[in-house]
Design brief:
Layout: E1 4-10, H1 13-23, H2 30-44, E2 48-51, E3 54-57, E4 66-73, E5 83-89, E6 100-103, H3 106-115, E7 118-120, H4 122-126, H5 132-141, E8 144-148, H6 155-159, H7 162-165, E9 171-173, H8 179-187, E10 189-193, E11 199-206, H9 211-228, E12 236-243, E13 249-252
Parallel strand pairs: 1-5, 6-7, 6-8, 8-9
Antiparallel strand pairs: 2-3, 4-11, 4-12, 5-10, 12-13
Length: about 250
Amino acid sequence: KNHWSSHSLFGTEKQCLEFEEENKMSKLNSELLNSSIDQLLKFSKGETISYKGADVKGKLRKYIETIELQVTLKNYDPSRDKRFSGTFRLPMVPKPNSTICVLGNQKHCEKADQLGIDKMTIDDLKKFNKNKKLIKKFAKKYDNFLASASLIKQIPRILGPGLTKAGKFPTVLDENENLQDKIDSTKATIKFQMKKVMCLSLAVANVTMNNGDIALNVQLAVNFLVSLLKKNWQNIKVLYIKSTMGPPFQIFY
């Protein structure tokens, strides 16, 4: 049987400082990380960079490129070792344009309307009639879902396992929580979830951020992932950062 270990951490100022302290013990070379970020940003601005011994001209895109952290693990057997999952709130939102849908009660749906956020009632969800294709399409349309606490238990019964399979099971929205604050924290939260493969990738920043903010987000994300792993750094084979359309830069060997 596979057992999941699950952790959650929100990057409060104190925890970020603690993580920064840990960064001094981190195996990430800050010089290599900073030069990789520098090259990545130059490429995304359309400048020419030296990459693997050749001059390569970048291209400025018409949209905001995301910066992904790509991870390859080692000394890890997905079929035998404990799978892990964990969420961590980064200090800077990696994808400001990420999309959210509220699956809400009347109060939360009204608030979503006021904020211009997409929403669905339980009756709207029932109209999917458990159609797997439609639910899969619905799950793909949004990056995250929030669901009123009073409704969350009904969602698997109405939609089946579709959202869970997509790794997008809704985050609970308590009755008196501020919806805007919850949206902001959800957009800043990254999720590591081990599946049956040795590779992971997730958005940790974007090309409009400055070098320091990107480096902090990357370091915090890496340190949190390492804390989830059984053998910590001994489970990390390689790490890359990569913009949406740019080449990958190796930041850990």
